[in-house]
Structures are given as structure tokens and as C-alpha cells.
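Fold this sequence, please.
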Amino acid sequence: MRRLVWLALISAFLPALASAPIAAQQMWRPDTPPAAPLSAPSSAPGANVRAPAPKSYQPVTVKLPAAADDASFETFRNELAAVAKGRIYAGLERLVTVQGFFWDRDFNGGFDRKRPAVDNLAAAIQLERRNGMGWATLAALAAETTATPFTGRPGIICSPGNAGFDDVEFDRLMDDTRSKPRDWVYPRADKTAVHAGPRGNAKVIDTLGLSLVRLLGYLAKDNEPDTLRAAWARVIAPGGKTGFVAPGTLMSLAPERLCYGKDGFGRWRIAGYVGAEE
């Protein structure tokens, strides 16, 4: 008899236990809306991001890198852009240095000293993967007008150039926000709009000045090769507002870069590649 009573009680409670997780999943608080799928700075594209609670932070001023002041360098970049557009491998080989090509931030050990320099460049930017999307990356890098000297390699410049900011202030900012360098970007231009949604016609809720900006992630597809140039970014503005910034308007503190130098005849050549910080 006692066993029958227990069985009856368990049967009565089972439906409630089974429905509890469903009810919990349906709960929603106005101050914590569901996060959109984002590609985090430190995760694979398409991964969900648990965003930090938005709060204001002290802006760290950024000095934008300057454009390279060399007409011959601009001519070379135009030539490289034409090669990238036409996907001419032999033409690319002619624009890469014959000796001394380097590959910095080679996290997967892809550099092979026995290969020709152009083959190492092709491996670095994944030239022929995903239907040749590396050619689009090459064209985008050729379009970058800014460049700065590469520390430790005399006569070499890398593009895009490095932004300038106060390292002490940046360290303090990361301590205050419990963040890492990869969590920060900067706008390519002053007064960059922050939208309420990832659409050009969405309401502008803030504007970004020339200072570091907290990056939450990118609305990128899993097969998107270049989130910085092709995807909307979700950010926290210095004033604490969370919103979206249009593709191509932000720059990483450690982006992928092409490096250039002049050969013995004074001609510009691609001298190396620097991978993006992972």
C-alpha cells in the first residue's frame, strides 16, 4: 500500500519537473535581451558571445596612422591591386621579393623556407581557399593607404599602419574593464556612427571619436573570411551604450598586414606578411 502511495506522488510531480526547464527558457528580462549570434574577437566566427554588462569607460585617445608619403609606393599598390583583381599568380610572383620573405605571427607553422616566397605568401593569406577568397584579401590589403615602419627590420614598412596611443592609459583601461588587447578596436575616422541595429537605416544612438572602443563581436557568417571589412560589429561606446558599427569602419590593434621594401634596383616589393592576432 505504501509503495502505491509513493508511486502516485512521483507520477504527480513528473510533469512539473519535465516542464521546468522549458519555463525557465521562456523567461525574459527587459534589461537582458537575448544576444545575437556574434563572432567574438577571441572565438571562431559564428560563436555566441556572452557580452559584458555595458558600462562607461575612460576613452583612450588614438592617433590614426598616416598615409605613406611616396608616389612610387602608391603606384606599386595599384599594380598589386590589378594583379589581385585579375588573380594572376605569375604577376603576383613578380611583385614578391625573391629573398628574405618573412611571415610573422605564423601561429600554425605554415612558413617553409624551402618554398618560393610567393608560395609562402599564398599560404599565409590562403590565396586559393574558399574559391580564391585570398585574392579578395590581397586586394583589400593593397587598398590600404597607411603604413608604418616595421620595428627591427630597417627599410621595411607594413600596411595598414599602426595607430598611436598611450600604453599606460591602455593598460589602466584593460585593468578597469577586465579585458584583453584583442577586445579593443578603433574607428578609421572621427564621428563614426553607432546604430541601434546592424542596418544602415537603424537609428544612430551614439558616435565614436578617435579613441579605443570595446568590441563585443561581429555579426559574421561561419565562412566569412574577413569580419573586419565585411561584417557589422557590436561595440560598447565609451559612454556605455551598446550598438552596431558598419562594416569596414573599425580597425583591430593587431590586424593582418602586408610588409614592403625596396629591392636592389629601388623597386617596391612585398617583403613579408604579419598575421592577425588570434
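The chain has a mean pLDDT of 84. The radius of gyration is 24 Å.
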